[in-house]
Amino acid sequence: MAILHPTRTLSALLPRYVSRFACIGSACEDTCCSGWTVSLDKKTFNAYRQSKHPELSKTFETSLRRQRSQGSDRNYGKIDLHGEGGSCPMMQGGLCGVQAHMNESHLSNTCFSYPRISANFGGQVQQALQLSCPEAARQALLAPDAFDFIEAGITVRPDTVQRVDADGAQGQHLMHEVRIFCLQLMRTEGLELWQRLALLGVFCEQLAATRSADVQALLDSFARLVEDGAVLDALRDLRPNHPAQAMVFATLWSSKESPARSERQREVIDMVARNLGADAESGVAHIDELVARYTTGVQRLPLALEAAPHLLEHYVLNEMFMHLFPFDQANPYDCYLQLVSRFGLLRMMLAAQCAPEGPLPDAAALVKTVQVFCRRFRHDVNFATRVNHALKNSGWDSLDKLYGFLRH
Prior knowledge:
This protein is mostly helical. It has three domains: 8-161, no CATH class; 164-235, no CATH class; 242-406, no CATH class. It has 17 helices and ten strands. The protein has helices at 16-20, 42-50, 57-63, 97-101, 109-113, 134-142, 168-185, 193-208, 215-228, 242-254, 263-275, 287-304, 311-322, 332-354, 363-378, 383-394, 399-406; strands at residues 8-15, 38-40, 64-66, 77-79, 91-92, 95-96, 116-121, 124-129, 149-156, 162-164. The strands form four sheets. A three-stranded antiparallel β-sheet has the order 2-4-3. The protein has a three-stranded mixed β-sheet with strand order 8-7-10. A hairpin with a 2-residue loop joins strand 7 and strand 8. Helix 14 (332-354) packs across helix 15 (363-378). The longest helix is centred in the C-terminal third of the chain and has 23 residues, at 332-354. It is globular. The termini are far apart.
């Protein structure tokens, strides 16, 4: 059968965990072949529509739909899902019929790439994995060396590689310098994760107000401030604001209305609601009960994280590396606002796991919560907009207020 989507092998920068990842197929606990709309690029959609394959043509005929609202060549059509769990109709006996009866080049760009995200950032190709995949989450969050960076070959479809460039060689050099500085800042030894995030916020706020010609000077001066500890002096007296954390992130949590598809997702979502005191009928928790349970959970969370000591740091690093921080929003401070919001919402879910008396969750349970969080929120294209509105409308988008979100 002819090749529909050609591929290329490129040398890329990877966190080490990416090189260890392999899809576990039918053993996956939360398969990407159900529960999501399967988007189709134009070339794949037309190939499926024109196919006469005896095993698949009937399914193609009944299950393909055009995406006429906000459609594009990348998002040209979709596959209708079947049943309560929303399974892809191409699945046959636990295997993908397209891959089994045609070939891998006939998979849609979405199905071929997931959970991999590839980008060309100023001439440097990179790849990371979306942690909504259970196996990717395990590989990224648990291994101590998961974020050692290596060079390796990757196979990609060229038109799926996101490209980010700056004007001229100097602009590209500065983009790389800024990005490397942010990643290194988040790995600074001797600082707690909340302190690193606080320093990152100071840097992003200053970067957003700095002219391109002055960026290198900012990098140099901020590095000296971190080395001599001057910036940390302002953080020593910070105290956590647990009521604000509980209420703001519970609001973001409740703004997600779509139901969980899989049993695994429902289990985690029900756990969070129950452990934070939500009423079984209304689904709403009284504010005092919510704050009390959240406070208990977030105070117990460090003990639970002893079973997975790299989990939150690696989550943050993966977000930053995969989404080209701080260049994935209108300005660096908006990037930071989104990062802190996702971090705070995830921490609320993890705190909910730790709120009840009794044994703390083990490493597998913590990873499961991260994976369900990523599946539920990270693929929601409207989540960033809701975050911005929620924080800005309530006045919680300023750096001094955000600091109250960071310390647990």
